[in-house]
Design a protein that fits this description.
InterPro entries: Aldolase_TIM, His_biosynth, HisF, IGPS_HisA/HisF, RibuloseP-bd_barrel. Keywords: Amino-acid biosynthesis, Cytoplasm, Histidine biosynthesis, Lyase. It comes from Olleya namhaensis. Heterodimer of HisH and HisF. This protein is an alpha/beta fold. It has a single domain, classed as Aldolase class I (TIM Barrel), CATH 3.20.20.70. It contains 10 helices and 12 strands. It has an 8-stranded parallel β-barrel, surrounded by 7 helices. Helix 1 (about 30-40) runs parallel beside helix 2 (about 55-70).
């Protein structure tokens, strides 16, 4: 049985880690390289860095950060934000990232998923999907959740899987930052629909929320930010609690 993964997520803006609620009201959460080192030491399985203000300047900041993280961290890490070409991915992977996450760029040009999977392998390609439940339907949103599309979460996830995505990172905008639990019903449906791993994102507040997303949401990994950044949940304690609930994790 594959072990379930715990993934701290670092949203990067102007070279700093930030965290908000429902994608707004950002506050500083520290230096990303220092946080990454701590998480690697404390038992995180992977890390995700998302450049939420991926301007031209932000891209250079991100590459410098990736080089530093690769130097200090021995666990896999994914980088996302502003990636729209093979060249973007090439430089990030050469700088030390293990995977890349694409979101808006995949919606705007779905062939990008095929191109990246063909060039670098599906294992490198994570498609992030930000979706909001509106009148009972999960609608995909772009640009940090600010622009609604006409895409349905489940249809879009199935399409990117068929194009070569190796993993889906699903963030529920309804749950993001609320600490009220993950969107387990939608996660379970994604898990039943797809054959690739699903990373749950948005809503972690307690240890029980992680237990629930692995059991009820059938998630393969759980991603969280503020509960880790601000010391509310220790990764080692979380993993021991998961073990006690018969959920396989790497200790």
């Amino acid at each position: 049985m594959l072990t379930k993964r715990i993934i701290p997520c670092l949203d990067i803006k102007d070279g700093r880690t930030v965290k908000g609620v429902n994608f707004v009201n950002l506050r500083d959460a520290g230096d990303p390289v220092e946080l990454a080192k701590q998480y690697a030491l404390k038992g995180a399985d992977e890390l995700v860095f998302l450049d939420i203000s991926a301007t031209l300047e932000g891209r250079k900041t991100m590459i410098d950060m990736v080089l530093k993280v690769a130097e200090h961290v021995n666990i896999p890490f994914t980088v996302g934000g502003g990636i729209s070409s093979i060249a973007d991915v090439d430089v990030l992977l050469k700088s030390g990232a293990d995977k890349v996450s694409i979101n808006s760029s995949a919606v705007k040009r779905p062939e990008l998923v095929n191109e990246l999977a063909n060039k670098f392998g599906s294992q490198c390609v994570v498609v992030a999907i930000d979706a909001k439940q509106i009148d009972g339907e999960w609608i995909v949103h772009l640009a940090g959740g600010s622009i609604p599309t006409e895409l349905n979460l489940f249809d879009w996830a199935k399409e990117v899987e068929s194009r070569g995505a190796g993993e889906i990172l699903f963030t529920s905008m309804n749950n993001d930052g609320t600490k009220a639990g993950f969107a387990n019903e939608a996660l379970a449906k994604l898990s039943e629909t797809l054959n690739i791993p699903i990373i749950a994102s948005g809503g972690a507040g307690t240890v029980q929320h992680f237990v629930d997303t692995f059991k009820d949401g059938k998630s393969d990994a759980a991603l969280a930010a503020s509960v880790f950044h601000f010391g509310e949940i220790a990764i080692q304690d979380l993993k021991e609690a998961l073990r006690e609930n018969y959920i396989e994790v790497r200790l």
